[in-house]
Amino acid sequence: MLNLLGSPRRCCDGITRRQTLKAGALSALGGFGLPQILAAEDAGLVHDAKAKNVIFIFLLGGAATQDMYDLKPDAPAEVRGEFKPIPTSVPGINVCEHLPQFAQWAHQFAFIRSVNHKAGCHNCLPCFTGYDMLPPDQHPRETDPPSLGSVLQYLSGEQAELPQYVYMPNWLGWGQAFRRAGPYGGFLGKRYDALTTECQPYYDKTSFDPLPGNPQIVRGEPLLPSTSLQEGMTIDRLNQRRSLLNQIDEERWRAEQILTASTFQRNQQQAFDILTSSKMRRAFDLTQEDPRIVERYGRTLFGNSTLIARRLIQAGVRFVNVTWDLYWGPVNVDYDAWDTHTNNFNILKQNKLPGFDQTVSALMQDLQSSGLMDETLVVITSEMGRTPRINGNAGRDHWTNCFGSLLAGAGIKGGTIHGSSDSQAAYVKDKPVRPADLIATIYQTLGIDPERRVPDHTNRPVEISQGGVPISEILA
Asked: What is the overall mean pLDDT for the chain?
């Protein structure tokens, strides 16, 4: 007998979960898988699924949102900083003077100014999973809750043509040689981790080397991992090799535990599909893109990754993550990223805000002109914010008590503000938002019940949104 986990409440169209079960469109744990969601949308059974795709932009280090889109011009000088507000396409909503292109897209964005958590600085688990308890450290664990992208991969089933979750440009923390928790399958298993790209960051040779407080612009492109065919290796020979591998895997299956073997098989299948999928390889080939569009995004690692994210969505990938990472481990290019303890305003003015402004604006223009805006949700967030008071090094330090996030596109009521910070952007003034609420809002736009449960490592049912509640005021 199939037991349906989760709340007995009705769906917004009045269909109960039990009735949905009778419709036969549910996966083994109750609720819709992504293929079933699409079929149900076509049949009119799930009319609240506004978004089919997600582009999740993560600004690692903690972006100073009070210097971007929650400015406090009337605060004391040691709080308000150096930047002045400018008007946007929405009367009454102002942004930083160094975001002039982004300002013209304010009518598409919901500005959330009251995000907060107590889960520790640089802890990335809350914004990827909604889980906001303080962990013992920042390394990933098999007992962690799964990321939003991993849950979508899980719900997509085993027969998806392409990976449903792609993470760019490198695993989180690679640029510091420090793997951070967050964007993984967690207790669902490694087989639901993202397809994660590789990169070779570099910078333009100038008269100075990258130093803390004086970063360079990070160049490069995300690369599919180990997908180039060796010289002389044809697709026919690859298929023959695959047949031999399958025979070996049959013996491996008998010798190993089922879970380990199934993880190996799925990952091997995914790697083979990437090798032979012209659609996937074409999405990463920017030589096939109009050079003028590549220029619009900016020939940076962040710009190229974001452009490829749009191309992946067009190819059929459902969830694409683009992280603006730090690079001072394997390569020394950008020590700070958005972690601006020193020289905050110069870094933002000269390095971060121009790149953000150019790339995000290009993405919004592309989504609108291609018609993808109507089915793609764009999320922009960080793991934390910055202190209201400027420190002695002209920087801002870590702060989790109040910061902002942005949502735009499918399912979002643009030109809106949710929540507010106090007069110094220090604490939430009204309508506090947990990271779990952001996660729940994303699930809601995808037509997935945020209260849906999946089994953890002990087979205990756990809500995919960690108890988050959708922000109804910003939902279209």
From this structure: 85
